[in-house]
Amino acid sequence: xxxxxxxxxxxxxxxxxxxxxxxxxxxxxxxxxxxxxxxxxxxxxxxxxxxxxxxxxxxxxxxxxxxxxxxxxxxxxxxxxxxxxxxxxxxxxxxxxxxxxxxxxxxxxxxxxxxxxxxxxxxxxxxxxxxxxxxxxxxxxxxxxxxxxxxxxxxxxxxxxxxxxxxxxxxxxxxxxxxxxxxxxxxxxxxxxxxxxxxxxxxxxxxxxxxxxxxxxxxxxxxxxxxxxxxxxxxxxxxxxxxxxxxxxxxxxxxxxxxxxxxxxxxxxxxxxxxxxxxxxxxxxxxxxxxxxxxxxxxxxxxxxxxxxxxxxxxxxxxxxxxxxxxxxxxxxxxxxxxxxxxxxxxxxxxxxxxxxxxxxxxxxxxxxxxxxxxxxxxxxxxxxxxxxxxxxxxxxxxxxxxxxxxxxxxxxxxxxxxxxxxxxxxxxxxxxxxxxxxxxxxxxxxxxxxxxxxxxxxxxxxxxxxxxxxxxxxxxxxxxxxxxxxxxxxxxxxxxxxxxxxxxxxxxxxxxxxxxxxxxxxxxxxxxxxxxxxxxxxxxxxxxxxxxxxxxxxxxxxxxxxxxxxxxxxxxxxxxxxxxxxxxxxxxxxxxxxxxxxxxxxxxxxxxxxxxxxxxxxxxxxxxxx
Length: 627
Description:
By secondary structure, this protein is of the alpha+beta class. The chain has 25 helices and 17 strands.
């Protein structure tokens, strides 16, 4: 087997430049022929739309799979995203794990290849403990079934499905339900070849420790799956996935129970040790922990988000005192022993410690919710104080990092600013918060010393947040032009923008929508050509044509009905009513010359168009819609 023939085509100098008046080749022609490894006479003249040129044409026979496959494998292996490679034995080869066998087959044929210090063959050793002998692979399609005979399930999805079924069945026998984290499930699937679920128990006395800490110990450290009862309460039970299948799994169970006991004992020690001090005393140590070199310590950040959370709570007409207190204590648990061991518990443990210290439920909930959402589509803060604190934390980071000119570039985003920006948008939109984002950004900047951040920071962060909304809405099925028609207007309130985008999508379904979109485009084009737009209102005495009188009358009546709807944010209903203007607008453009020679008439008609456009711009710039 080999590649198809490889045709190569190279264009050289123009014929006019390739040969002199005497017909002899110039240096340009000679140099081109030499670079191609041929004589000038072997070059071809070809006519193109840009004149006559010299071309070099060659055909190379395709290389065989025997030659190509080892090179392809080498290149593929180099490009694998492996953060940490390891070496084994005395060789210099490295990979994510030691390689014990190498099989390179093309159909029935074995392709000679040497990688990782191994010569390619047909044999795979199978499971390290459950298979005494290896297995011969006759052809690639035989590989998965052949490995099953030596206790290896090669297919990831098949293995994952089997593990999921075993976990669910094991949990059901205990009377509970397993907590299955998708990332952990994928990790465990990658760790085993012949999965076998084993159920273990731990001392119920450990349940005095917050469940999140016990779950973290089981999931993060031991790769176990915790079990909860019908009320979601943690049971003293866990499920592990062993890579050994045996009739008696008591030894496996006992060994894992012993290891877990030590882990849970550590968690209980951290819980009790942290209980010897208050969250406020932990907060006093934040001055020694750096947030960012140019932005100060975590104590500085706590001061800023405390002030900003109070400001946001005021705008939300929520509990200002609770928001301010939550901001003061928000980062304190980063000093705790528990979070030092389980960093994923930041905020969560702070909430527990706040309640233990006698802080209000609102403060404790806000501390717990401050980092939400932690991923795209993740849970949002539910409490008002939690919303205020989460917004304050994210906005402080956004303006701070942008303000020192360290905005994300490419795939690099060390401060997770994209996630923070989308989090701000989702909290405002899905939390239905009528907050003015530019005002919040300026409030966030005021927490820093004057002149410390770049002057363009508010506009940069505002645009950055709006950019996140494109994918947010496209994932919900909205068209890019529907989104742009609203965001182009730079809406201050993201919740208001959300209602307007949804209204535009509904409006687009109406029979009159296309004509009104076209009319808005026409109006926009006319107004853009006018350097200085006339001031004042439409003068009814200057309405000479029947069509413009009709349009002005309908517009006045429509405005009286629609403006109250717009003021209340009832955009969908408003656009449905505004669609009734279509016939009058069409009649106006069919019968009236806008750019009349008489200046007074012309300006009056321009004012009429300006009023129409102004009314529609309360919702969207329909002229930006396509089609």
